[in-house]
UniProtKB/TrEMBL annotation:
Protein name: Tryptophan--tRNA ligase
Keywords associated with the record: Aminoacyl-tRNA synthetase, ATP-binding, Ligase, Nucleotide-binding, Protein biosynthesis
Signal sequence range: none
Entry's EC annotation: 6.1.1.2
Superkingdom of this protein's organism: Bacteria
A Pfam match: tRNA-synt_1b
Species assigned in the record: Nocardioides simplex
Enzyme's top EC category: ligase
Amino acid sequence: MTRRLSLLTPSGRLTLGNLLGALRPMRDGQDTADCFYGISDLHALTTPRSPETLRAAIAEQSALLLAVGLDRSTLFRQSRVPAHTELSYLLECVATTGELGRMIQFKEKSRRHETVRCSLFTYPVLMAADILLYQPEQVPVGDDQRQHIELTRDVALRFNTTYGEVFTLPEITVPPAGARVMDLAEPTRKMSKSGPEAGSIALLDPPDVVRRKIARAVTDSDPGPDPVRADRDAKPGVTNLLEILTACGGSADDVTTYGALKSAVTDAVVAELAPIQARYADLAADPAYVQEVFERGAARCREVTAPVLAAARAAVGL
Ligand code: ADP
Ligand code: NA
């Protein structure tokens, strides 16, 4: 059976964008692959956040992964599988500062911070370790991660050439044209768990919050008697709302005004989130169960990754 790997960083509250673009496809992936889904808690340390904030984000994200139905996967926390950091170090010994300095995401993120943690610079190497340890045939990633997967392939190939064949080079697969949900307040940027809250719907937002955020969503910059239609360039906000509506199982057939559109989107989103929120409430009441699931997952990960790490250690002469 093919292996599928996906990691989510607990850098904020999971959003509707994460659900439609990542979690729903991850759930469907369980039927056709042996899925390893991880919480990349180490990646969350590349930028400053308090221990309390991190702990809360990890707890919420763990229960949410179960609540959206990823219970037929191996769920784990990256920090509970030490092979990730150990292999990352071995890969740092073949990666170069030149190639890491060329990573667009590093350049962009480091520009926004006054001091830059070393881990932000080496993050793509840890990501390479995350992937290579599981030898997945395919790594479905969005455009923003393409350069990092290419780096993973470069580093793996260099390791293999220098020390002997240890790693399978992952193929980059473009995920099926999944919904790309845009920020409600600023519809030319994507909705993000680390972005501003006003334009982002968290999976745990109660119905009245969802209603308020959608009511305030940007539709047109120049209002006027303009029909409700999709036009990504001229009407990014309306297009986004229409796409959210369809992705959440609603229909715009009877929608003729922006008010009706917003009300239909609200109903569809609230209905989409309701079962997730109900399961989340049960799981949040039983943190020991959630922890047990993730610990069982990590134990399987330690087993699966041990031979790969051992081969890498032996290859370099350790
Ligand atoms: P975020 O920007 O919310 O922190 P990440 O960049 O960590 O999200 O990506 C986590 C996963 O969620 C990825 O698979 C990514 O493609 C998906 N994703 C993130 N934001 C969106 C969005 N706005 N629309 C669709 N998919 C998204
Ligand atoms: Na992000």
